[in-house]
Amino acid sequence: MKKHHVSFTVNGDDTDVLCEADQTLLDVLRDELHLTGTKEGCGTGDCGACSVMLNGRLVCACLVLAGELEGQAVETIEGMAHGQELHPLQTKFLEHAALQCGVCTPGILVAAKALLDRNPDPSETEVRYWLAGNLCRCTGYDKIVHAVLDAAAEMRGA
């Protein structure tokens, strides 16, 4: 099968890959770039485990063809922390024990960051609505929602 050269940025770094026509962004992140934080849950865009930011927009990486990435900007869970310093959302998820098996956690964190970047003071209802596309099969969502609200308050300096 013919491979296509694609240049884009991942977490601010210029990236070049050779990909096949049927490879998804998720495939490229995990298999070519070895960024395994983004998880495959369903492969159909229904669970949100593979949520990443594409040009500032929240998307499921399993639904984006890698060949469409030319000139695009991708942000993954690996880009959330600054070196060893965790993002406040990551810290609050740990403090609130808002994770269990970890498959959904990266996608939820990316989605929650997208929400807080857009709305730094969301209500509980807004957090629940925004995260509705992210499924967690291990636990309820209360700890997740409270971790997001606590991180939002900390980020606002409240």
Could you explain how this protein is built, in words?
The chain has 158 residues and is an alpha+beta fold. It folds into two domains: 3-78, Ubiquitin-like (UB roll), CATH 3.10.20; 88-156, DNA polymerase, domain 1 (Orthogonal Bundle). The protein contains five helices and five strands; from the N terminus they run ββαβββαααα. The protein has helices at residues 25-32, 88-95, 105-118, 124-130, 142-156; strands spanning 3-10, 13-20, 51-54, 57-60, 73-75. It has a five-stranded mixed beta sheet, sandwiched between helices. Helix 2 (88-95) packs across helix 5 (142-156). The radius of gyration is 16 Å and the shape is globular. The termini are far apart. The model has no long low-confidence stretch (mean pLDDT 96).
The largest beta-sheet arranges its strands as: 2-1-5-3-4
Number of domains: 2
State the low-pLDDT regions, or none: none
How much strand content do the residues show?
Answer: 15-25%
- CATH third-level topology of the largest domain: Ubiquitin-like (UB roll)
Kindly state the number of beta strands.
5
State the CATH superfamily name of the largest domain: Beta-grasp domain
Looking at the overall shape, the CATH architecture of the largest domain is Roll
Based on secondary structure, the structural category is alpha+beta
Give the averaged pLDDT, no decimals.
96
Shape: globular
Task: Report the sheet with the most strands, covering strand number, pairing sense and barrel closure.
Answer: 5 strands, mixed
Percent helix, as a range, is: 25-40%
The CATH class of the largest domain: Alpha Beta
Give Rg in angstroms. 16 Å
SSE order:
EEHEEEHHHH
Q: What is the distance, rounded to the nearest whole angstrom, between the alpha carbons of the first and last residues?
A: 55 Å
The helix count comes to 5
